[in-house]
Specification:
The protein is of the alpha+beta class. It has one domain. 44% of the residues lie in helices and 11% in strands. It is built from five helices and three strands. It has a three-stranded antiparallel sheet with strand order 1-2-3, with no helix packed on it. Helix 1 crosses helix 5 and helix 4 runs antiparallel to helix 5. It is elongated, with a radius of gyration of 17 Å.
Length: 167
């Protein structure tokens, strides 16, 4: 399975529509938590050799990013939250080359600027008509550039390091 912006774009749109139709709207923090959980479900559909994507991710890292105060800092906060979130995927998965995965170290630090730019470009382009699906696609292009350093070990205790990306 790979990341699926269509399905999760629809789920996020539905969450937003539900919020609009509520007689008593959720407070911004609760709505942010809801969007964070939708993104978390989306992210766990990804694949990365040697990383157990399905077991990782801390949606709490995302929540502050989904609170909008309509300032320029909102985009920076969201970009940082997305990168911080992807750095929480540290659970070893199945080894692809050797016997065992010893460690997983994601490094989204270099993607903070590109993530912010992707969000700004999306918001300023005509793509905003694509709704959440388009937003997921725009940010996924940056997520796919986050390197995960995976150390695998063979049966004799020899290790080898691999750099892998989320698909």
């Amino acid at each position: 399975m790979a990341l699926d912006p269509n399905t999760y774009g629809q789920v996020a749109e539905s969450a937003l529509e539900d919020q609009i139709e509520r007689l008593e709207r959720l407070p911004p923090a609760e709505m942010a938590e809801e969007f964070a959980l939708v993104y978390h479900d989306y992210a766990r559909e990804g694949e990365c050799g040697g990383v157990d994507i399905g077991a990782g991710g801390d949606p709490g890292a995302l929540t502050p990013g989904f609170i909008s105060d309509n300032t320029p800092e909102t985009v920076t906060r969201l970009a940082n939250a997305l990168c911080d979130y992807w750095e929480t995927f540290t659970t070893p998965g199945v080894a692809e080359v050797l016997n065992t995965v010893v460690s997983v170290t994601p490094d989204a630090s270099a993607q903070r600027g590109p993530m912010e730019q992707a969000i700004r470009d999306y918001a300023q382009s005509g793509s905003a008509r694509d709704g959440w699906r388009g937003w997921y696609e725009a940010t996924e292009a940056v997520v796919n550039q986050i390197p995960f350093t995976v150390v695998e070990m063979d049966g004799d205790g020899n290790t080898q390091t691999f750099v892998r990306l989320v698909l």
